[in-house]
Amino acid sequence: MRRTRRRRVGWPTPRTGTLDLICPAPTAMPGYSFTLTLTGAWEELPSPRPHHSPHAAADHALTTARAITADYYATDVVPAPTRPNTILGRPADLPNAPVRLL
Fold this sequence. Notes:
Order of helices and strands: EEHHEE
Structural class: alpha+beta
Strand order of the largest sheet: 1-2-4-3
Largest sheet: 4 strands, antiparallel
Strand content: 25-35%
Distance between the termini: 49 Å
């Protein structure tokens, strides 16, 4: 008796996940830090190389936000959160990974 084969057409359903992080972020003043709160989501993009590290989206978001806040003083309470929100607040594909940060 022959087995019937399932035919899978197209890409598999992409994985998705959420980001919900709270951690300190550096400032331009030694000894002072911001409290960084990141909330968002990520989705896997169709690719011949599957994405094996769901934490890459969180690492990218943290690295980007920390690099931005390191240029601000602790007293810059308005521009310090505005700049990371401007950059991370829109969908962007991660470099070197088939993942989109939402």
